[in-house]
Amino acid sequence: MxxxxxxxxxxxxxxxxxxxxxxxxxxxxxxxFCGAHRLPEHHNCNNLEDCRQQAFExxxxxxxxxxxxxxxxxxx
Length: 76
Hints:
The protein is mainly alpha-helical.
């Protein structure tokens, strides 16, 4: 039986917890983490700024597509 994959979080004291199988892989840096470090904010993800910028651009495009323009009323 292969050894359990361990959390790849590195700091002063490395984490020795088992990596989660389904949700433990970060979609941005592709490293595997335990439940405590699986979020990009919690493991100091290298690609966190790119992730935030992409989310900002998606949100901006969505809000601009939903913008309503007040129709001009003709005054007689």
